Amino acid sequence: MSDGDASSDLALQAAWQAAFTLETWYFIARGAGDQVTPLAFETPEGGIIAVFTSKDRGLDFGLSIGLPEEEAGFQLAVPRTECVEWLLQFVEDGVSAAVLDPGTADAAVILAALPHLEQLALAASDEGGRDESESDAGESDDAESPPGDGTT
């Protein structure tokens, strides 16, 4: 409604748009074996999954909320192209939103809106060229396995 709300909405959209140019998204893993899930927080509106644009941001956030370093560093590296579909599976478990880089960007979005944000971001990157879409992609080399692998 106010100019502040509009600029906040633009900042949220820009943060997610940048995230959709990455090859990999990171999640602090919770659980063990085949029960590994991404870190989520409970709110009255439902769970919120924490999404990170780099392993370092995930580690820093995990440490800031009091996780031991080995737990904060146990992360899932999921190919960005699989993330939206994967995250939508958690709606059945009561997860309603995702927050991008909590503690820094804090760009929260309802999970049901992620496919639309993805389409907007990919359309914008097609229009704007692809020279920046390749940057920040090299961080996945030593990342943990994608979800379902159960590595600890």
Structural description of this entry:
The chain has 152 residues and is α+β, with helices and mostly antiparallel strands. It has a single domain, classed as 3-Layer(aba) Sandwich (Trna Endonuclease, Chain: A, domain 1). Helix content is 36%, strand content 22%. The chain has 5 helices and 7 strands. The protein has helices at residues 3-19, 55-64, 69-72, 80-88, 114-128, and strands at 24-30, 37-38, 40-43, 46-51, 75-79, 95-100, 107-110. The strands form 2 sheets. A 4-stranded mixed β-sheet has the order 3-4-6-7, covered by helices on one side. α1 packs across α5. It is globular, with a radius of gyration of 15 Å.
What descriptors fit this protein?
7 strands, alpha+beta, Trna Endonuclease, Chain: A, domain 1, 5 helices, disordered C terminus, 152 residues
